[in-house]
Amino acid sequence: MTRIDDNPSGARSAVTVRGLVKHYGETKALDGVDLEVREGTVMGVLGPNGAGKTTLVRILSTLIQPDAGQATVAGYDVVRQPRQLRRVIGLTGQYASVDEKLPGWENLYMIGRLLDLPRKEARARADELLERFSLTEAARRPAATYSGGMRRRLDLAASMIGRPAVLYLDEPTTGLDPRTRNEVWDEVKRMVGDGVTVLLTTQYMEEAEQLAGELTVVDRGKVIANGAIEELKAKVGGRTLRIRPLDPLQLRPLATHLDELGLTGLAATSVDAERGAVLIPILSDEQLTAVVGAVTARGITLSSITTELPSLDEVFLSLTGHRASAPQDAVPADDRQEVTV
Amino acid sequence: MSAATATITDLKGDGRIPLRGHLRHTGALIRRNLLWIRQDPESMFDAVLFPVVFTLLFVYVFGGSIGQSLGGGQEAYVQYVVPGLMAMMGMNMAQGVGTGFNQDFNTGVMDRFRSLPIGRGSVLFAKIAVELARMLFATVVLMIVGVLVGFDITNWAGLLASVGLSAVFGTALMWIFLTLGVVMKNAQSVQAMGFLVLMPLQFGSSIFAPTASMPGWLQNFTDYNPLSSLADAARGLMVGGPAAHDVWVTLGWSVALTAVMAPVAIHKFRTKA
Q1: What is the pTM (predicted TM-score) of this model?
Q2: How does DSSP classify residue A299?
Q3: What domains are there in chain A, each with its CATH number?
């Protein structure tokens, strides 16, 4: 694969953003954003609605111009070299940007031709990508007849036609049901496996955790934190205890009892009935000791007690002081990574 | 992934797109617009129905009475109104381009085009090409219906010239609809707005009826209405009579409209967030 990042060091920056500003009247969509995405990595840009994520992607796709600041993608400046830049990027928007009146195949063929592929190659590429995104059967149907997930997959396929060095995924699973969302995630993981550099915007904590290695948290046009996901979690410092009583009947009484301790964690005590565990957020080792002491005093036998790193939702809360306005449904607590004490 | 290099061979230089590239892109987009028609043949209905309905309506409803003022009857009016309808063809084309463009903006597909390394004009040229084809199709229908109700084609060269003139004027008018298309929220508003603007212009002109019997103030308007010039030019070219002056006036209007509105439309298009 001949790509722009065909260089042995592999540590070059694919996207560099410095002090990017974009105002719409009084609204500061971007208010001095810095960002760096290294080649071959996935950078998650996490933030609630209106944080400036889409504005960032639109500037990096040359769709709009920044008011101030600099941005380069694969070495091309977004303002001075838009034509060259457009050759090396792929864009999947928040709303599937395919031509609904055209069949899937025709959508891909058209984009192939617009990217200067010879006819034969454009045909082959359309076939190949439809196959890869499991759309071969629907190839001849207008995209308007596709389900939400199929449309999103077609959109992903369309952004892959030009074998982009940098791929922007702007909230790729917003509005999809959980099963379809998992399908899209699998596709994205495969693309990443092929070595594409990805800039992913999302308001789902779990999506960032699933796909991104590094994370930039944005809020109201400003970067409020960035770093490797694990680092960010550690920075926040909070943990959650997962306590399983041996006797499931003890679950509710245990939860009530722990609630009465009045620990000021990041979130309220909750019960994971399915897994027979009580979840209680803690901030320090003293609190851990207090919880264990309380359980012992009560004489409840435990089958296990583990600590978990906080979810990204909690990370956001502690970084911004307010909850992400994103829908919370995408964060099943049981998928959290567990760390045994 | 053997074909990987194909799309980035052009990384050197300033990234300008060669003429062949523009033609290739426009071709791909014309194909897209033609596929729309194949997918949705009903979109051709207006192109077919407009000349049929308007010709029959005007000839049989107004033809007798207006024909009298022309010193004849219905036959005289046929000779009068068919060239007038020819003038309308270009306007319909302009409106078609404006509405179609607006639809693209409202689905994310324009974002996709604008993030691709193609000349932004390609999207427009493709649309114009397809709407011109649709206009030619409608013109053929108009001439068939016209001949059926008694229109004499006396001057084939003049006929072709008036098609060309109508298309030129339509292309100039198109910039207004493009601006509307970018500024306004949806295709329906563009259509409604176009209707509101075009309707008085069309009826306040010599397209459907001679202006001699109109009140003085209205005549002042119709005399300067470019649609009158276009209709009179088409009349002169298709059925004979003086045409040169009106042809020049129409061309002048076309140049002026383009000079003023094309930069506005392009600016709106570029800065659309």
Answers
A1: 0.78
A2: T
A3: 13-233 (3.40.50.300), 236-340 (3.30.70.920)
